[in-house]
Amino acid sequence: MVPTAHYVILSALLFTTGVVGVLVRRNPIIMFMSIELMLNSANLAFVAFARHLRSLDGQVFVFIVMAVAAAEVAVGLAIIVAIFRTRATIDVDELNVMKW
Amino acid sequence: MNHSFVPKAADMLVVGPETIVAAAAMLILLAELMPARISKAAAPWIAALGLLASFIPMTTTGISVRTGFSGMVVTDGFAVLMKAVLAVTGLLTIGFSTHYIKREDLDRAEYYALVLFAISGMMLMASSANLIMVFLSLEILSISLYVLSGFARTQPRSQEASLKYFLLGSFASAFLLYGIALVYGGAGTISLAGIANAIASEGAARNPVLLAGAGLIAVGLGFKVAAVPFQMWTPDVYEGAPSSVTAFMSVGAKAAGFAALARVFLTAFGDIKVDWMPALWAVAALTMIVGNVVAVAQTDIKRMLAYSSIAHAGYILVGLAAANQAGVSALVFYLAAYLFMNLGAWAVVILAGRRGEAGTEIDSYNGLFWRNPGAAAAMGVFMFALAGLPPTGGFMAKFYVFSAALQANMVGLVVIGALTSLVSVYYYARVTVVMFMRDPEPDAAPISTRGLLGVTLAVTAAATIYLGVLPGQLFQLAGLAQIARP
User: Fold this and answer.
1) Averaged in consecutive runs of 10 residues, what is the pLDDT profile of chain B (486 residues)?
2) Out of B174, B188, B236, closest to residue A55 by CB
3) CA distance B454 to B378
4) Which of residues 15-44 of A touch B (CB under 8 A)?
5) N or C: which end of chain A has fewer CB within 10 A?
């Protein structure tokens, strides 16, 4: 059986990958994918801890997170589409009507 | 444990206000099936009635402590008072929105539905007794606000505000979520009461996983209340979003974020407060300094008010950093006073603005007194209150926050707070000076104070002065804002 710590370390690595992705990439869709990676790294930690603790709370939380992430995707992509319609670009460095 | 799937009346009463508000929001969406003329006219009324009706369950439960849905939600003095603050915020938001969204061609019924959904999430946040509920209610309010900030969807500035808020907001939510996962691992439970018990009994207090989780939760919520160093999104989002939305979220999202911070940190992590009080001390000090100092350099009133709202988050954090009952009461009082003075100031910004979000430079307030004496006088009151000068609610709010901090022996923080308040007098007074002492531009027409917007201005100005002259009643109420220790 894989020890819980391994799962948690993997989830921490995934989370860090996501954070770095948001900070260095400039395409909002890639940035958003990195955020999804962060959410899913939390999911991995939840199920790992849930198995370790033999409690269902963590498993339930994962379902809630998935539902919320789906709602977030819907809104996020709608915003990106609205921007692309008026500007034909979505690069965040060109979204500079206001100072960043 | 009862595993019935049919909610009982006692359970529903705990989340009564948010249920009514969410129901009103859905009613607005349903009413869209009627001809556009009727549904547009009905939407603000349905929203206002829903918000007023939400006071019924609040007065029914009063300050009694009740839990519902197997301990997922709780209502106590703190929750009820925060919900009342949020309901009043919603009512005033409707008051200054009707005129604004017509002027900006945003007159769609979904606007009110989204405001109500956001309020229901904010209210739920004040009632959360479980980290699932904290996360879920944070997302209800955030997703509604992402849409609202991009509500002027063809305007580049609104789009940009929406995308920035969305990306940085979900980034912060991910931090919060990972923090919850770590706390779950460290304490073995996600109920706030359970975490408190685990810390008290099993010595989880020194568990590094739990402490790291608590830190990440603070980052996620600190972002929502715009605490430095997580404030970088605030000026851009506040400047770009439609003014009425900015006004709403500058008060509502802040109140909700502080409600969650207070509940999570004072109940679940109450026994390890020696660990987080210094961190909060530093964040509060930084937030007051950065917010006030950068606000001095602003030339756009929306951006200036954005930095001012960061600064006020710092003052409210002082109440939280004190981590005592006086601090919690001061926090509620501050939010109640802030709601009137800040929404009032934004109502003047809306009144003085022109179609297309024009006229937001501070220079365009030159001689506002000659164009509309009432609005200029009201703005003067709000600027005095935001600067914390007597006899306004802003002064009393700061007074209570600082005295709570003194009770907790945080003299340094109070000194920083007083000095930064002095700095803030400069940029608030500048607005007052240009309104009264300068001549208006030759082509500037007089502004009429239109119907509901004028009423909103009068109410906020009167409440701001009332809280400064006779703060006793609200202070007594705020004293009832006790967070139930499970």
Assistant:
1) 70 91 95 87 93 94 88 92 95 92 88 96 94 95 94 88 93 95 92 90 78 93 91 91 94 94 91 88 94 91 93 94 91 95 93 82 85 90 92 92 93 94 92 88 76 91 93 88 79
2) B188
3) 10
4) 15, 18, 22, 28, 31-32, 35, 38-39, 41-42
5) N
